[in-house]
User: Fold this.
Amino acid sequence: MFSDRPDDLDRLNVLLVQLEIEQYYMLPLPGYDSEALQGNILRAYNTAQTIIRDAVETDRKTDFLWHAPHFYFRALLCATCIICKVIGSSYKKFVDRGRMEQSVADILAIHKRSIVMEGDLAARLTSFLEPWLELAVSTEWEEEPISTFTHRLSASSTMDCAKRWKHDLGNQMSSKSQPAPACGTDAGSVMPSAADPMQYIDWTFMDDFDWNIEPNIL
Assistant:
């Protein structure tokens, strides 16, 4: 995998392995130290940011994302989810806003660049990742970035994020589609003011990861 003369891809591979290890230390085990956990989470967040930035730069030089095999897409999605866990939590106050906004732009650029054909995994991911990132950046969150993991596996980060994205976007659309009724108006007769953008999201994208999960886990 690694050459005698390390290049950008070798560096990216090393960072991906590093993140794979670091995310295990994001799990709040019984009796954990809160300061140590905070440091672990922010360390993984910084590594994920570096991965996303390096992927953009490598693609700029070599068209990496046009040719990258699927396991790179999954690894970059994992880095995306680590970033999402932090910016969608109370830990957002600990991170540099300028770098956060750059990471958001890079994340969207990476996944849009990875689209090969209409309706593929990258296209379906982008369709709901973009509105969620907009929501995350503009919202002040109070919840912790990590509470529980579905499983202690790297896949858990992605699965947990998918559940979170669906939950947050669903709540956002519910609140938008139920405006306060005007004086003298029957609340039950109020119709949604706009089409639901989530109607175009195909949540079966999770099947593309070949995970054996319960159908109602999302």
Remarks:
- Residues 8-171+197-209 form one domain.
